[in-house]
Amino acid sequence: ALYFYHVLTAILIANRGEIACRVMRTAKKMGVKSVAVYSEADRNSMHVAMADEAYCIGPAPSQQSYLAMEKIMQVAKVSAAQAIHPGYGFLSENTEFAELCKQEGIIFIGPPSSAIRDMGIKSTSKAIMSAAGVPVVEGYHGEDQSDECLKEHAKRIGYPVMIKAVRGGGGKGMRIAHSEKEFLDQLESARREAKKSFNDDAVLIEKFVDNPRHVEVQVFGDQHGNAVYLFERDCSVQRRHQKIIEEAPGPGINPEVRRRLGEAAVKAAKAVNYVGAGNALLLNTSGTVEFIMDSKHNFYFMEMNTRLQVEHPVTEMITGTDLVEWQLRVAAGEKIPLMQEDIVLQGHAFEARIYAEDPNNNFMPGAGPLLHLTTPPPDSFTRIETGVRQGDEVSVHYDPMIAKLVVWAEDRQAALRKLRYSLHQYNIVGLSTNIDFLLSLSGHPQFEAGNVHTNFIPQHHDELFPTKKATPHEVMCQAALGLILKEKMLTDAFRDQSDDKFSPFASSTGRRINICYTRKLSLLDGENIVDVAVSYNQEGSYKMQIQDETFLISGEIFNEGDSVYLRSSVNGTVSHMSLFLFLSVGMQSGAVAPMTGTVEKVFVKAGDKVKIGDPLMVMIAMKMEHTIRAPKAGVIKKVNFQEGAQANRHAPLVEFVDEEAESK
Ligand SMILES: *[C@@H]1O[C@H](CO)[C@@H](O)[C@H](O)[C@H]1NC(C)=O
């Protein structure tokens, strides 16, 4: 311990958000100065406020800030930091950066660059594991990347197969092909994402295991040749290959399987040592060995990550450890604080990731201000890992995670109860979140029973998304409300200049209204005209009648960022929708950008004839691909954006030749 305090007095955290705050908390506890770096977009963020020193390193895009190695290195020198903690993502598994740290005599809190290289290149890591006797899944990891060769191997392995970026991680560049028919499409999509994310489009093919569980083991190594495991986490419940709820230990896993998992993981960690002998190559940091597990609890090595994982807190909760403290001690040359036999599993922990996203819209990520934020009160069994506060903004430039809610209790059932109780206490206003979805998920009987697998969300889709579809009449009521409120908004803007007409629909308060006034609106539903009789209730709601059905409606228009939304309540059922998209249905003359992003690929040009649903473009927004499809059949008049261009939300991407002009 003396050695440690002698060496480390200041560390630089090359990250942002919750993980930067998490690392700083431990640094403060240990009396180590925290140095933050930040982009211009993060100037007022929580991790900057929390740090002892903070340095701006560039504009919002990560390439110019959080990935700018030289700038970060310069800050390390200026601030006299002896070590750099990379967190997860960004530079955490970047060989070049680890190498740069070594050259500059700064401790990289992570493994040596050679270990990152071997573990980061998945095809190599499988070969190493196979040789070390760790079970692996059948696949093709060859050099020949031709379509024919890859297709042939996919056929040999047997569909369904998984296509994965060789340098991939976090679900990037990963696609499933269920049959030979869709293989080439999925291959091209995987390559495109791989090229974009890793600048390398090499892929590998693997057998896709049905109903698999994602079980990962936390390991830890030091420079003295010690390696221990801290039991497994189950991270099976995922959407788009990204984790939502993690837990430790894995439900239903018996102590014998647990021991075999742990031992296989340590074997995997030690296997790294056999490569490039000579240097201190043991995993001298936190590592995670990921396994795929079938229903009979057979497990196979998938990959190993040499960084602190997002979900590390559940392991800390069941082992009573502080893994960041371990990392700092081990980086300074100390031994792992506990021997294997001293690491005891206690109780059960869950982590739920709270995202700014819309689960009902295919988990479309969101961004915007946190107008109001209340969380469950943190205590020693409830942790709120976050990098944002009330009033902060969830930025379009980075991951839309708002917080991780981590709970612990003496057993799984009690921990699950606590998770749900705490989720109910979370209250976020200003943007859509997945909190309601997390409640449906954690309350699902199959989740309660511990029957988790990576296909959980698609399999239980209907129960998890119970939002009953609005009936056609309810949709008409929402449309009528949208029109009335929009009209009211415009009228209010001119109230001062104009003579107020005697219309309750033009009044923002309704204070002058005490007679019953009914207005008839005629709306178009497809081919049919629907009459809606609207009357205004004194307390600000509306009564709407369509044929013999009556509805009680209330709502408002609000701005979120640069968009206008309609919040409506139809007989108590509340929904939110983009007013722009909503009111433009039918008047749309082309395709619009669903959110701000970059045009990745353009499939059409002026003069092309398209059918409804044909792909027009691929956009990348919030690190995800969105295919823009033709909203109607027609002829393309103009493509407004070229590949590589940035398009703002709701920007018209493609214009259609209008039908009259066409028929002339
Ligand atoms: C909506 O609520 C009103 C008032 O409670 C009720 O009279 C009406 O029948 C409800 N409409 C429908 C379609 O359920």
TrEMBL record:
Q: In which pathway does it act?
A: Amino-acid degradation; L-leucine degradation; (S)-3-hydroxy-3-methylglutaryl-CoA from 3-isovaleryl-CoA: step 2/3
Q: Which GO terms describe its cellular component?
A: mitochondrial matrix
Give the E.C. number(s). Answer: 6.4.1.4
All residue ranges annotated as the Lipoyl-binding domain in the record: 582-657
| Database matches in Gene3D superfamilies | 2.40.50.100, 3.30.700.40, 3.40.50.20, ATP-grasp fold, A domain (3.30.1490.20), ATP-grasp fold, B domain (3.30.470.20)
| An annotated Gene Ontology molecular function | methylcrotonoyl-CoA carboxylase activity
Per its record, the protein catalyses:
3-methylbut-2-enoyl-CoA + hydrogencarbonate + ATP = 3-methyl-(2E)-glutaconyl-CoA + ADP + phosphate + H(+)
Q: Where is the Biotin carboxylation domain?
A: 7-462
Predominantly, its location class is: mitochondrion
Cofactor(s) the protein needs: biotin
UniProt superkingdom: Eukaryota
Physiological role: Biotin-attachment subunit of the 3-methylcrotonyl-CoA carboxylase, an enzyme that catalyzes the conversion of 3-methylcrotonyl-CoA to 3-methylglutaconyl-CoA, a critical step for leucine and isovaleric acid catabolism.
Assembly with partners or alone? Probably a dodecamer composed of six biotin-containing alpha subunits (MCCC1) and six beta (MCCC2) subunits. Interacts (via the biotin carboxylation domain) with SIRT4.
Its recorded name reads Methylcrotonoyl-CoA carboxylase subunit alpha, mitochondrial
Organism this protein belongs to: Buteo japonicus
